[in-house]
Amino acid sequence: MLLVVLRPHGDVKVDALQAAKARGQVTAVIPCPQAPDECDRATVRLTDGAIVTARVVKHPLVPPVRTGQRILLSVAENAEPADRYLYVDQDRSRPLLALALVFAFAVVLLSRWRGVAALVALAVTALVLTQFVLPAILGGANPVLVAVVGGTAIMVLALYLTHGFNARTSVALLGTIGALLLTALLAEAFLRLTRITGLSADGASEVASYVPGLDVQGLLIAGVVIGTLGVLDDVTVTQTAVVWELAAADPNASRADLFGAGLRVGRAHVASVVNTLVLAYAGAALPMLMLFAISGMPQLYALSTEQVAVEIVRALVGSLGITAAMPLTTLLAALTHPTPSPNPVIGPL
Questions:
Q1: Is residue 86 within a helix (H) or strand (E), and if so which, with residue range?
Q2: What is the reported pTM?
Q3: What is the rounded average pLDDT of the residues 155-163?
Q4: C-alpha angle 138/139/143, rounded to 5°?
Q5: Which CATH superfamily is domain 21-91 in?
């Protein structure tokens, strides 16, 4: 219901950013007659069969355009014919499609029908993000609420599609939602406590300039929530499975025994997963960290800048959510697992 209420019914596109696009294959490249050191003129066969000439700006950091490459173009419809098409980037759709097919084949080969279900869940996740989360935030809804509602919808669909409709999946879902809410609360508290504006995030200031009233800080919190979802899924499903397997191995184990044994297994899992999450955020921020290193900036000074502080908050808040998910899910699994009925006492005949 909340998905319908929060999603805007109008168009969220900004007219100022709408521009015609084209794509095609380069058939020839020659230097620009007036400025051969600054640009090239590429002859391109578009996907609709039309032959056009595109201007390609030369830059030391941009790989040159070669004959046979597939490229993306922007179209200035009101410009002169010689300047109407401008090179934007390489067209990477074919290698990306090939990678996606290899990935899908590997998943299905290893996991069979469960792998097919996982791919369907992945498609559903992409659908919720593009058709609900992004439009709802751009439409003026609270980004944190949208992230929690959208994240919950993703987990409901993904978990049940991948692991089936059963008690184990329901327990994992409850643990995921509980940890998700805690992550959102912690992210909001610490981002506001550290006075992070969110404008340093990639593209945030540009989006804010085109979408008046956008809660940029809330958008950052929403990013933390959504970024933690995948790891939460891993932790909660694993912990539920651990408790169920422990109960199957020892049918006479009490709920306290199951909880304690599940915690012992979960500690090692959480330790590795937390390190994975921190490394993922560090890897994404590696160019920025290198820039601080070559500038000779003092470490404490660099840590206090918004660009670094926001990555620290993301990593540590996400890790806190994962850490909380483990005992929460383990407890729910131990409490809800059906205990064996006691053997009936048979008296003398």
A1: strand 85-90
A2: 0.78
A3: 88
A4: 60
A5: Nucleic acid-binding proteins (2.40.50.140)
